[in-house]
Amino acid sequence: YYTLSEEKVSYNGIELNFPAILYYYPRTSSITSVKSFGLKENFKLEQNYPNPFNPITTIQYTISTSASLQKDFKEFVTLKIYDVLGKEINTLVSKNQSAGNYLIQFDASNLTSGIYYYQLTLNDYKKTNKMVLLR
Question: Do both 57 and 101 map to the same domain?
């Protein structure tokens, strides 16, 4: 069963941690369906290009309008670079951003050849892609 509070939705006592629209029909006195807004609807993280790269690559991502339903609403976004051990190397973005397309250039001049990961975070959602620095 679903329970509703001011800003939280629970299903069988477990709080749901994703945006959702609940459809409630008073005649049945119950919620009849739940539509989830999944990760793909909120943002998209593209593969960097070029890949492999030396020493500069471009990372592209999109925040969709469904992520920010209110006009001029901004989402908190981070874009971070990690090495293969999971150590944070760099933070490229850490700010509120509106819906739209974004291109970020990453300069790895000070790094050695190898595999690196870039992770985009939008609120509670995360997406990670792999890139290769080849000198």
Answer: yes
